[in-house]
Design a protein that fits this description.
Length: about 450
């Protein structure tokens, strides 16, 4: 119970109410003591009236008057004269004097606490103003035993009342919290559990119903989250079904195209001029179609293995890529540049990194060749204490906006004729497998720059 929200409210409310009552208790006891002493002054003044009426009273009557007033001596100052009105021998010497005429609140509180926590009875002198202008000053001496006992009784009554008030207040707050806060929270939790059991069931999306502003905001936010998640799960299911269908079609189509490729290869031996002119284009088209099918199958099956990490020289790997792409560029005016430290060794999967860099360089080469203008492709690398950075920069025509917006999305990141739209998606996936990132730094009329970042702390 005490680990629940309402249980903690119950405990905290009880403690806070008790604290408030204690803060009230101290001045209340001080006020009770002041009233008690003032009452003894009034009783003593009334007792002294008997002496004023008759200058000579019997010792028995004087003792009775003092006993009823609970004092030992009564001194009344009238007309600038200090007169002992009633007197009886006290049990000891006077230890403290208390003047109630101009005592501050803090003085009264301090005197009350000293009396409350001092168990030894004492004889004290109390000075005050007579009632109804019955003189200038009245003084009494009294025993503190009854005063302290009365203060303790009064304090216990206050503490008992405080405890009752605390319990009642805490119970009422407990019930209010249960109804206004805990019950709606349990409703939200119950809905979350029911939704988690079947998140694709739109009927389980929460319907905000509480009137508490903060809880209603939470319910509205949860409804929005559940609605988006349900829609995303349905879309994911449809995409998974579509992906399965595309994979099956690609598999069958690849078999058909492979057969067609075999026939096209045989046709290359024909002496017919028309056939010789058409067959190369046919073979290229079939090759691109087979490549598209294979890339689609590989991407759909998520067959990329985890990278096999070991150290290798980056300059040697990029040299192989540049040599291959230089041959592919043929007679086109295209130059390659390398700015890679000869001793730069990084830890990664060389085969996967080769595929990533080869894809970036090939895309740059194809874009420059397609533009019909001269160009340059540069590979740059550097290292810091935390990562390795590799850049592929070209002076080509740049990527169109539609390609930049969907660059790393499968089947959507290319406008190049014959492109599958999978190269950049696969490259980004391979880099993420190394714990790194692949991002487009810039792409405009002056060219395109890609940045690969591989973390050293993970690799090491």
């Amino acid at each position: 119970m005490f680990n629940t929200l309402s249980g903690r409210f119950l405990i905290l409310t009880t403690l806070f109410v008790m604290l408030a009552e204690i803060l009230i208790f101290v001045p209340s006891v001080a006020r009770f003591r002041a009233d008690y002493l003032q009452d003894r002054l009034e009783r003593a003044q009334i007792a002294s009236l008997a002496l004023l009426a008759d200058d000579m009273i019997a010792p028995e009557l004087e003792a009775e008057l003092l006993e009823n007033a609970e004092v030992y001596n009564v001194v009344l100052r009238r007309d600038e004269m200090r007169e002992l009105m009633l007197s009886s021998p006290p049990p000891g010497a006077v230890t403290h004097d208390y003047d109630l005429r101009d005592a501050s609140a803090m003085t009264l509180i301090g005197d009350a606490m000293m009396r409350l926590f001092n168990p030894e009875p004492e004889v004290i002198r109390v000075i005050g103003d007579p009632v109804r202008e019955g003189g200038l000053v009245i003084e009494i001496t009294m025993w503190t035993a009854k005063l302290r006992a009365a203060m303790i009784d009064y304090g216990l009554n206050i503490l008992l009342l405080s405890a009752v008030i605390s319990v009642i207040t805490a119970l009422l707050l407990f019930l209010a919290v249960q109804r206004l806060i805990v019950r709606p929270i349990k409703g939200v939790v119950g809905n979350m559990k029911a939704y988690a059991a079947d998140p694709e069931d739109a009927r389980r999306i929460i319907a905000p119903g509480t009137n508490v502003t903060e809880l209603r905001e939470a319910e509205v936010t949860l409804r929005s989250l559940q609605t988006d998640l349900t829609g995303a799960l349905k879309q994911k299911e449809r995409l998974a079904q579509l992906g399965g269908a595309v994979a099956r079609i690609s598999h069958d189509l690849r078999n058909v195209l492979t057969t067609a490729q075999l026939f096209a290869d045989r046709m290359e031996t024909s002496e017919d001029p028309m056939v010789k002119r058409v067959v190369p284009k046919l073979v290229n088209s079939i090759t691109r179609a087979v490549s598209l099918c294979e890339n689609t199958l590989a991407f759909g099956k998520a067959e990329e293995p985890a990278p096999t990490m070991h150290r290798f020289n980056l300059a040697e790997l990029t040299a192989d890529i540049i040599e291959s792409e230089r041959l592919s560029a043929g007679e086109h005016d295209l130059s390659f540049a390398e700015d890679i430290p000869a001793g730069l060794n990084l830890r990664a999967d060389p085969e996967q990194l080769y595929r990533v860099l080869s894809n970036l360089v090939r895309n740059a080469r194809q874009a420059i060749v397609a533009s019909g203008k001269p160009g340059e492709i540069a590979l740059q690398a550097s290292e810091t204490e935390s990562d390795w950075q590799i850049r592929v920069v070209d002076t080509g025509p740049g990527l169109p906006k539609s390609s930049r917006d969907h660059l790393f999305q499968p089947f959507a990141g290319t406008n190049r004729k014959g492109g599958s739209g999978l190269g950049m998606a696969i490259s980004a996936e391979l880099v993420r497998g190394h714990g790194g990132t692949l991002k487009l730094e810039r792409s405009d009329d002056t060219g395109t720059a890609f940045l690969i970042t591989l973390p050293r702390n993970i690799a090491e």
